[in-house]
Amino acid sequence: MAPVPDRRPLPAQPATPSDLRFDRRTGQWVVIAALRQERTYKPPPDQCPLCPGPTGMTSEIPAPDYDVAVFENRFASLSAANNGRCEVVCFTSEHTGSFAGLQSRKARLVVDVWRERTRDLMSRPGIEQVFVFENRGEEIGVTLTHPHGQIYGYPYLPPTTESMLAAADAHRKANGSNLFADLLADEVADGSRVILATGSVTALVPFAARWPVEVHIYPNRKVRNLLELDDAELDDLTAVYQQILQRFDRMYAAPLPYMAALHQYTDSEAQREGYFHIQVISIRRSATKLKYLAGSESVMGAFINDVVPEALADTLRGL
């Protein structure tokens, strides 16, 4: 398909879209992306940039309809100049709805798209990690309500990934086994935090959950990314992921705001101990209360959870 010129009246892009800065205090990278101040903010439905737009005047997708659409984020946090990449994945052409409400065939199509974009981005020089994620709900900070997610190609390993790989490497040296596989085996043996399981996938609340609602979904065998799952496993993964999101939406009268993250690892020696899993979290701690990251969490990185993980697992099992 030939490229289509963008005819929307949008602000000009800066010459340097984003800047990577290294914080010597923490040893962590920070992305400075001032152009994101200009991103589309809560447009009315008739001006949604993710709905099909045959005229090309209001939409990122100049087509009368689509199943799943992928495009490079106009207001990207990570730029090609720094070997980064940011993409948007639209789950459906319908303005309302959610991943949980997709027909199973369409949900699997989205997962296949995630897989193919992972394949492409992992093959690009300079990209250290491919991060697929979704933010849902205004409480989370979502400014476009059309069902969609994003993909980041990081030119460095983010702090969470570095920490998990370091813990996994230490566990391997001490025990001769994979940390995540051992954690999964322990959770299955205990059973108190397991929500549901199939022949190839297990969904559970982690023992040391940081968030009032937090679920991890693991393949039952160690793989590093979506590319290493076979078709049957992808079917199970999609179905279990949808079921968890559906249970989230039955917790309260209103749909649950959430963040979903796919932890993926490359086929490299440095990331050999990585174990693919999906993490889904929510800041809602009751029907009327949200969990805000205040001083302890935001400044010190010391999380305090108001909800007992075993109680959450029991609630989700019953929904």
Automatic annotation (TrEMBL):
Keywords: Carbohydrate metabolism, Galactose metabolism, Metal-binding, Nucleotidyltransferase, Transferase, Zinc
GO biological process, one term: galactose catabolic process via UDP-galactose, Leloir pathway
Cofactor: how bound: Binds 1 zinc ion per subunit.
Top-level class of the enzyme under EC nomenclature: transferase
Reactions catalysed: alpha-D-galactose 1-phosphate + UDP-alpha-D-glucose = alpha-D-glucose 1-phosphate + UDP-alpha-D-galactose
Record EC number: 2.7.7.12
Catalytic site: H148 (tele-ump-histidine intermediate)
Chain sites annotated for binding Zn(2+): C48, C51, H95, H146
All residue ranges annotated as the Galactose-1-phosphate uridyl transferase N-terminal domain in the record: 81-158
This protein's pathway: Carbohydrate metabolism; galactose metabolism
Cofactor(s) it depends on: Zn(2+)
Keyword Ribonucleoprotein included in the entry's annotation: no
Galactose-1-phosphate uridyl transferase C-terminal domain segment(s): 172-318
Molecular function (Gene Ontology), one example: UDP-glucose:hexose-1-phosphate uridylyltransferase activity
PANTHER family, sorted: GALACTOSE-1-PHOSPHATE URIDYLYLTRANSFERASE
NCBIfam families tied to this protein: galT_1
Protein name stated in the entry: Galactose-1-phosphate uridylyltransferase
The species this protein was found in: Mycolicibacterium murale
